[in-house]
Input
Amino acid sequence: MTLDRRNFVLGSLATGVAAACASKKEASTASVATPGPATAAVAPRPARKTILVLGGTGFLGPHVVTAALARGHTVTLFNRGKTHPGLFPGVEKLLGDRDGHLEALANRTWDAVVDPSGYVPRLVKASAELLAPSVGHYVFVSTISVYAKEDIRSPDESLAVATIADPTNEDSKANYGALKALCERAAEAAMPGRVANLRPGLIIGPGDPSGRFSHWPTRLAAGGEVLAPGDGSTPVQYIDGRDLGAWIVRVIEDRTVGTMNALGPAQPVTIKQVLDDCNHALGDKARLTWVDAGFLEQHGVEGWSELPMWLDNKGDYLGFGTLQNARAVKAGLVFRPITETAKDTLAWLDTLPEVERAKARSTGIKPDKEAKVLAAWHARK
Ligand SMILES: NC(=O)c1ccc[n+]([C@@H]2O[C@H](COP(=O)([O-])OP(=O)(O)OC[C@H]3O[C@@H](n4cnc5c(N)ncnc54)[C@H](OP(=O)(O)O)[C@@H]3O)[C@@H](O)[C@H]2O)c1
Output
């Protein structure tokens, strides 16, 4: 899959004031030593913050809101009232549209703003400039798709980002990564030194409408012979949306700024470790057959979309699954076990109405194609 194609999949599936920043913690300076496994120590309950979320009712936003409320903060949501309008009945909601209708944000102050719904720099600039005098801290949810290539192993946040010939081109599906990179710059330009640009990898777990990770627990739980990608040695990275939501709140509490990759786990894992662990946690019903990456390509099987979470790590993807996360870990990002995410994802899917459940399970290789490819793999021997 090309980088553009992956960006498209990522993009389309996803669908106090500065002067008071005394305790600001700079995370954007030179790289830090990679710490050992993150500990899950819970930070002491902080001073209450007022937090504005631009969006907040899709996939990641609710995890941020839930974590913020659990920590005693006061949350305000700003959105159009279209996506899951019934969520968070006790939370203040301001109606508006990022594109030209920010009036509801005027004459208000918050300690921090979280922006998970910015995809084009014009709109991030508009909200960041409007809020700059009245908000101390801007937390922009970016993506690792900002990177033009992942063609070296273990790159940190200094890896070159994608560019776009015409920055006024707002096709955020075709130019997802390049536009997100420009969004990061727009936020920083409006609020210099007061922005955290967080770059998550694949966000997984309950609430994920894209169904990408969901393919694996669903397929493993169904049992039988399962097509597994490559020789199993490919490193993979991901982040449970709940861990990301909790960390975003931690970033706000600590007033952390700078650019950070936001993905785990703490120690490198391979796709084989992940699938074996999940299979075991789900009752050992599946038999994994590892099929060579070249064979998959010959048979038109796409990594990332049909076999989620995995890409053949060569060429522009040589460093796939090896992005450094030391800055984020130093800033408090911790990770739950993948087995917990797998079990909770299945439990969440079971709560959905049938139509939504089918949609959330529709990603991943179709059963008939999987069977054909497995038969061809066995026949070649
Ligand atoms: N999924 C992944 O694997 C992945 C990986 C890396 C990075 N990311 C990033 O993670 C973030 C995921 O965000 P999410 O969609 O889950 O966030 P969210 O905040 O949960 O949902 C999007 C929110 O934006 C609101 N919204 C959309 N258009 C709007 C507009 N024009 N004006 C005002 N509000 C608007 C929606 O409500 P209304 O429709 O009611 O307005 C909704 O509340 C994105 O920034 C994505 O780039 C995702």
Summary: Residues 1-40 have pLDDT under 50 and may be disordered. Residues 4 and 174 are 7 Å apart (CA to CA). Residues 10, 14, 55-62, 79-83, 97-99, 116-117, 141, 143, 200, 202-203, 210 surround NAP (CB under 6 Å).
